[in-house]
Amino acid sequence: MTTLSKHNMSEDSGQALVELGLSVSLLLIIVFAAIDVARAIYYVEVIKNLTGEGSSMASRGTLLPDTAQIVIADAGTPLSLNAHGCVIVTSVLDTVTGGTPSFTVTGQSTQGSCSGLSSKIGCFPPPVSCGTATLPSEAAAAIQSGQTLYITEIFFRFTTVTPIGNLLNNMNLLPSQLYDAAYY
C-alpha cells in the first residue's frame, strides 16, 4: 500500500513543477513587458513637460539657444538628451501676405544629437534660408498677424532594457523614437 501512495505523490509533484515553470515564465514575460512599457510612458510624460517648459521660456524672452540648452540640462541623466535626443526650438512669425496668413521661421536653435532628424515645423536641417513654417491647424488658428509663436520639439531615441521589450520593439508595439512638440 505504501508503494502505491508514493507513486501518486511523485506524479503530482512532477505536474506541480511543470505548472510552476509555466506560471513563472508567463509572469516574467508580463513583468518584463511592463517594465519597458512603463519606461516609455514615463519618458513620454517627461518629454511633454520639457517641451512645454521650453516653449514657455522662449515665449517669455529666453534666447532660443539658451532655451534649448536649459531643456537639455533639465532632462537630466535618465533621458540624457545630449546623447539620445534632440531639442529644436523654433520661432515662427505670422505675416499677412495679400490677406492670407503666412508663417515664417524667424529663428531656430538645436541642441543634442540631431543628425538624421528634421523638424516637423520647418528649417532644420537648415537650407540657405529658413522660409515657410508648417503648423498644425490648431496652432495656425491661434496665432494672429504680427505675433510670434514659439515651438519646442523633442526627439528621443527610446531603447528597451529587457528581451521582451526588444521583441515588442521589433513588432512595432513599442516606439523606437519618441516625439513631442509644444506651441506657445
Name some characteristics of this structure.
184 residues, 5 helices, alpha+beta, four-stranded antiparallel beta sheet, 4 strands, elongated
The gist of it:
Helix content is 50%, strand content 23%. It is an alpha+beta fold and 184 residues long.
List the topology elements.
Elements: H1 2-59, H2 64-79, H3 81-84, E1 85-97, E2 100-112, H4 137-142, E3 148-157, H5 163-170, E4 177-183
Helix pairs in contact: 1-2, 1-5
Helix content: 40-55%
Which spans of ≥5 residues are poorly predicted at pLDDT below 50?
A: none
Mean pLDDT over all positions:
88
Q: What is the SS-derived class?
A: alpha+beta
Total count of helical runs of at least 4 residues: 5
Count of strand segments: 4
Helix-strand string: HHHEEHEHE
N- and C-termini, Cα separation: 84 Å
Largest sheet: 4 strands, antiparallel
Looking across the biggest beta sheet, what order are the strands in? 2-1-3-4
As a percent range, the share of strand residues is 15-25%
Task: Kindly provide the radius of gyration, computed on alpha-carbon positions and rounded to a whole number of angstroms.
Answer: 26 Å
C-alpha geometry: elongated
Explain this structure to me?
With 184 residues, the chain is of the alpha+beta class. The protein has 5 helices and 4 strands; from the N terminus they run αααββαβαβ. The chain has helices at 2-59, 64-79, 81-84, 137-142, 163-170; strands at 85-97, 100-112, 148-157, 177-183. The chain has a 4-stranded antiparallel β-sheet. The longest helix has 58 residues, at 2-59. The protein is elongated and about 85 Å long. The chain starts with a helix and ends with a strand.
